[in-house]
Design brief:
about 170 residues, alpha+beta, 4 helices, 8 strands, Aminopeptidase
Length: about 170
């Protein structure tokens, strides 16, 4: 079962079919250049389904970020086979940036992730030109780790997150 996390303003919940339109619109946009986009609707659907399936395969995964009844982004943990370590990531849909949602969601997801598996590290692999995500990783306390560059993405750098209590 996928846990539901509550923060002061947000609900981190399982994806719903009705979230796909907002998800696909985001992934079709140029804002996704640092995370492999823009994507076609078909490719966005494959990614959406992979995010959902990650929970079944690993026991952890991505949540939809909900604010005031609307899907405003995604945040979660994943560990696909082509990546060396468990990663936390975040993306906010159009109109949701600059409101602290990513920080609030990532803080909750990190707390849950450390409680779920306190012995595995958590990193963020971030495109070196994605300044907003780098700033967020640093605000979360992550430290750039140049000793372990991400082998799966030559344009990314590794940020290692400190263990936090749930």
């Amino acid at each position: 079962m996928i846990p539901i996390l509550h923060t002061e303003r947000l609900i981190l919940r399982p994806y719903q079919r009705s979230d796909f339109d907002a998800y696909a619109a985001f992934y079709k946009s140029d804002r996704t250049a640092h995370i492999g986009g823009p994507l076609s609707e078909k490719a966005a659907w494959a990614l959406f389904a992979a995010d959902v399936g990650h929970w079944q395969l690993h026991g952890f995964g991505w949540w939809m970020i909900e604010h005031a009844g609307a899907a405003v982004g995604v945040c979660g943990l994943h560990h696909p086979p082509h990546q060396a370590e468990r990663e936390i990531g975040w993306s906010l849909f159009d109109g949701s940036a600059g409101r602290g949602f990513a920080y609030e969601a990532a803080t909750a997801a990190l707390g849950w992730g450390w409680a779920y598996d306190p012995d595995s590290g958590i990193v963020s692999y971030i495109d070196r030109d994605n300044v907003p995500s780098i700033r967020l990783a640093e605000k979360l306390g992550a430290i750039r780790d140049d000793r372990h560059p991400p082998a799966h993405d030559a344009l990314a750098v590794t940020y290692r997150h400190p263990k936090v209590a749930a």
